[in-house]
Each structure stands twice: as C-alpha cells, then as structure tokens.
Amino acid sequence: MPDKQQLIHITPETHRVELDLAYATANNFTGKPIYKEAHCLLLAPAEAGLRKAVELADSIGMKLRIFDAYRPPQAQQVLWDFLPDPTFIAELGRGSNHSRGTALDLTLIDSNGEALDMGTGFDAMVKESEHFHKGLPQHVQRNRLLLLGIMHAAGFTHIASEWWHYEIPGSRALPIIDNSESGPLKLM
Fold first, then answer.
1. Residue 133 annotated as binding?
2. The domain spanning residue 30 has which CATH number?
C-alpha cells in the first residue's frame, strides 16, 4: 500500500484516463507553460478516489480527461502573480489543495474522445464557470451535473467557482508538498 504522503504518478496506462496537462503547455489562462515536463501526480487518498471516478465514468461509456493535479507551490505563485483573484486562485498564505496533492482539474470525454460541452473552457476565469451558473443551456447543466455526480460519488468535493475542480474532503488539514526541485514536476 502506498505511503499517504507519497505522490503517485497518474498515467493513461495505469489509470485509464486521458491527460491534457495544460500547465505544461501554453494552452492555459497564462498563455505560457509553467511546468517543464508533463507529470500528473496525486496523493494516495486522491488517487484512490480517482480510480473510483474512472470506474463510474466507464460504467456510462465515458472517460476522464485530466488538466492538472499536483501543483508545486512555486507554480501556484506563478498563477497568483498572473491573476491575484482568490475567486479562482488560492491565496499563497492559504495554499492550494493542488499543492497538497489532493485536487485535480478534469472533464468528461465521450467514447469518441470528444469533451462534453461544459459551457466554458477549462480555467476560464469567468462567472460562467461556476458549477450552477444560471442561464447556461440545459445540456451544459446536464454535463456539469454528470461530472459532479461522478466525482461526488467517488468521494470528492467541489468548489463553487470552477466546474472542473475537485478535491478530497479535509484537504486543508494536510501539508503543502514542495517537490519542485527534487521531484519530477520541474518549473519553467
């Protein structure tokens, strides 16, 4: 059994997910890569929840596409410096649950590999990204509720402002993990 403080690698082969790690590319709200290499990492409790979510998605012919998981605190600093808005970016003193290895950003994809329409893109820092934003088309609400149901059934909670963000309950009680220098997630 893995150590609860050890970050576990998440790969398509080991976890039957698709990876589109946005912060290793320029395809994110900053417009530039933050990580030198794309690695998807989670603490054991979050990894166990992810395995449950994968099974639930698979039972309805869907798959999960992960945009981000563990994020070194230095990467959190880059995001905060770019957009110091606590609605979307955790303040540095509080710390992000991504930096605790307990949060992930993701969406659902169908059997053709197409992402379900969630109304906004991943990391769109706008009010329309709220889970229950009024005025979105029914199919968008349905897709968001489907993702929410899968992730809650797998043991995750959500935050109100980002339809893509899920974390394990009690994450704030865990320490921030800094592996930016010694671990596989090197910063640009």
1. no
2. 3.30.1380.10
**Spatial contact of 99 and 53, defined as CB atoms under 8 Å apart:** no
88 within domain boundaries: yes
Give the β-pairing of 18-19 and 63-68. Answer: parallel
Answer yes or no: are the C-beta atoms of 8 and 47 closer than 8 Å: yes
Residue at 184 is within a domain: no
User: How far is residue 53's CA from residue 174's CA, in Å, rounded to a whole number?
Assistant: 22
pLDDT interval class at 188 (50, 70, 90): very low
85 marked as part of a ligand binding site: no
Structure tokens at 55: 């099974």
DSSP string across 106-151: EEEE-TTSPBP--SS-TT--SGGGSTT-TT--HHHHHHHHHHHHHH
Number of domains within the chain: 1
Which letter does DSSP use for residue 86 in this model? T
Residue 139 assigned as binding residue: no
User: The dihedral of CA 100, 102, 108, 114: what is its sign?
Assistant: positive
Q: Which residues are catalytic?
A: 162
75: containing domain: 7-173
Helix, strand counts (H, E) of the chain: 4, 7
Distance CA 3, CA 70 (A): 16
pTM for the model stands at 0.91
Give per-residue pLDDT as tens, 61-79.
999 999 999 999 989 999 9
